[in-house]
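name: query_chain
kind: protein
chains: 1
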Amino acid sequence: MNEIEKDTSDKQQEYVINDPDDCITIVYTSGSSGFPKGAMISENVFRMTYPIRSVSSNVEHVKFCYRPLAWITERKSAIAAFLDGGCTGFSTGKITQLMKELTLVAPTSFSAPPTFWNNIYSEFNTTLSLTTTTDEETLLEYFSKLIPKRCRVLSIGGAMTSPLVVNFMRRCFQHCKVVEAYGTTECGRIAFNYKFLETVIDYRLEQVTEMGYTPHDKPFPRGELVIKTTQMFSGYVNNPEETKLALTEDGFFRTGDIVELRCNDDGTSNIHVIDRKKNFFKLAQGQFVSPEFLEGIYIQSLFIEQIYIYGDGLKNCVQAVVVPNKEHIENCFAKDIIEQICSNNPDRRLYDAIMTDLHTIAIKESLRKHEIPSKIIIDFEPFTTENGLLTVSMKPCRRKLAAYYADRLKDNNSIDNQLKIIVERALGKQMPFNEDDQFFLVTGGDSLTGLRLSHMIRNDLGVSIPLNVLYESNMTLQRLVNIIKDPLQMSCSSESIKSRLLHDSELELNITNKKQKNINYSPSMIFITGTTGFVGAFLLAEMLKVYPSTCKFACLVRCQPFINPFDRIRESMMFFQLWNENFREQIIALRGDLAKGHFGFDDVTYENLASKIDMIVHCGAIVNFVLPYSTQYSINVHGTLEVIRFAAHSAAYIPIAYISTLSVLPPGIRHETPIDHIHPDHLKNGYAQSKWVAEKLIAKASRFGLPVVIYRLGSIGPSTETGACNPHDVNTLFVSTIMKLRHCPLTMINMKLNQLPVNFAAQNIIHLNRIATDTCGNIYHIVNENGGISFEDVLQGIRNCDIPIDTISDNEWRAKLMSESKQNDLLDLIGELFLHNSFKPENTITVQKDSNEASQLNSLSLDNDYIRKWLIFILGSIISS
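structure:
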């Protein structure tokens, strides 16, 4: 300083007299939305900014300047400290040293933009989620030490701030007064703690139609704030075009901020900045999006340290660049992917976890579909002032962010690349884009994966692709791209499947007219398929009870060569609590396959078996409402054809009890309509289509004289004796999920579950079959006509199991399911089934009584004891497994 004083004392400067309106200094905007502009400040305005100060005050004034003095905030701070007799500490400019320098200077007041406080808030939440020994209040006290005790005032300004962050600051830094200041480079200070300052001469709100803001909005007026103050700039230096755009014809400044005016009882108004006009962009479908608004919401995610929202006018949804919180990630993921995370090559599971969290937050905050990122870029390199992605005021430099990530955000083959990313996310692995590859079934796709892929395509690309289309045998990535670009191609596929159904229903049976095998009520050997399944296991158990101990049961079991087929039957029956060691002597387990000719038996075995069988119960099938017809054909159609040929192989026809489904019926049909009177137009899934074709073949065999009885099953529920149920049944899955989440969607309360207990179904099929040995072609509908069980009773039953259940809205339930599903295989399965569907009580098919129906169904009563057994089975055998 001595050198400076000496140098200046030797040089006499000529005193310059300025007019009040002459430009005395230039201050610069931050450049967060474009290039920085120099705002000219007149001498009159400059003097009004600094009222007369008193240096005699005993109050200590220490400032910390870490932003350029070319900006009005830092310049005012340094000048004010000087006039108050205080001192100022200047930063080295290294953003990584900011917190250390803040501690060293220990200012008496400190101002920072929202991004600074967002980072502290994010770090607090991450630490809180990881700790198991520290409570929240203790952690708040620990974080309060980030701001020196000498500091009396913390100021937030420069951009919109989330109320969550402000609330956190007030709880954490209780030794400071937390204030919110609002102003602009061009107009100076405008508001303090939401109240207009005396510097404001006049203001008004102008409507922003494209963003949906008008001064007539209720309950509060909203619009762009245009304002005139005593501290107005004179224009931008050497930039008359921008000056003209910034000012209205009557001299008001266009702030670009969308504000909401909330009226007070005294007639004054509080000003709340709610959006930003200057940074919004327009998407392909015409929606306008505010990135700052979305960034303020998504920063809640514990996975996110920093986020940049980007919009492309050719796309329907926003995209995002995410800088993850490494500490949280390393706590959430296993060690096998930590190295990939650290090497800046994120694992697909990390991508899905972040996307899921963003979707959860979006649902919670009621965001619109286009405001949810369809794609994210994960970059472990943070936005900093050094790499130019943050301004020195720590605001995102959007111009530079857009340029820096341009290549990664822009898709040259938009749909092609997006689809490839979606498929890889669904499959959980990377794959080449080869149009000759049958991408789905070849890569191991299953029904759950199919559901997930279908939902992703619908959400990200806006096209609903039926699952049967995804599973077509000739489906390739390139063909799927073409379908998405031209969905009309799917109609051709629909017509193609109808043609195949009609063709397959007329397949040659290769049987000849024969007499029926002469049997009585005590057959010596029964051939049965599907005994490892839910209904099949109960049918076998029922027959073992009612038929004499001399009767043998030849059970066809599909299994690997190294697995004992008998063990599969026993394990299945043990799971359903049906097994009795006395069954062992009557069961003959045969390794075979419905999809193979002669079931895969050699000729000698096949001939020998056909000569001994007195009755066939054909229950074996793939029961899957997701997989397409082509996938279920081999078991459900070809398998039935093999059963028919087996029944006709010997000298006399062997009677068949064929287990079908009400799914073959079109809506509104309530009686036992022959399958030949039912056209396949209404069949919407591969299971129903395959069972329709199979029943057509059974009916055709009946016309040849083969004795068949058809049992069409409706919804099958748990056993009344043990509560044993099908673990893959939709109702069971849904109840299991409610028990796991301890929450139920509100719209389910009035739903009824109209199921027929599986043991009743088995009893009635066997009863009818024993008295119908001389009939041919009879059809029976096996359903519950006595009313279902109330879902409200199910919820009460869950509560009686000491599991508290709260009812929440559908959206809240979906959000909770989404957040939990990735941590639990069962919930992951439920998530794909229910996450994208509405909860509506299904219409139950009620079948008119027929003289053929068993009277036992009339006495069925499903009470609370039945519900209790079901829930206990779910808890013990499904949830705990």
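note: Residues 629-647 form the longest helix (19 residues).
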